[in-house]
Design goal:
alpha+beta, flat
C-alpha cells in the first residue's frame, strides 16, 4: 500500500511484515512507480527489509 505523511515523506507499507519504507517525496514515489509501469516493469519491494 502506498502511504505518505504530513512531513511529505512517501513510501510503501508491507502487508508481509507490517513495516513501512520511505521512498522519498510523494512526487518521487509516483515518478518511481509510474516510471516502472511505463516500462512494463513490476515494482519489486524488499519485504525482508525491516
Amino acid at each position: 500500500m502506498m502511504i505518505c505523511n504530513s512531513a511529505g515523506d512517501a513510501g510503501f507499507w508491507s502487508h508481509e511484515n507490517g513495516a513501512s519504507y520511505v521512498v522519498g517525496t510523494f512526487s518521487e514515489m509516483l515518478d518511481w512507480l509510474f516510471g516502472l509501469l511505463r516500462e512494463n516493469q513490476t515494482p519489486v519491494f524488499d519485504y525482508a527489509r525491516r
